[in-house]
Amino acid sequence: MSWNRANRREAQLSIENVMSASFYQTENNSYRVQASYFGGRPYVGLGKFYYQPDIGKWLPSKQHFNMPLEAWNFFVTRFDTISAKVNKLGLSGMITPV
Length: 98
Hints:
Structural class: alpha+beta
Oligomer: single chain
Number of strands: 4
Radius of gyration: 16 Å
């Protein structure tokens, strides 16, 4: 698919509606999946946000990782393999989705 203006806007709306959400949250930290465009190409990122109580807002930390949509799709298809390796290391109780 070529990323012309019309389908880029359509993809942006669908990605934002589906993927811009917190997937794990504590009282002071939130971990989110975000979709964005950079240079006209779609990217998916994982990021940490922190709560600033004096201003009452969630702010982005410096802990973010963004990848092109193609790399995200590759990652997602390999997630079962990654999860199995995490379990083999005995870390499964440390990584639990919300």
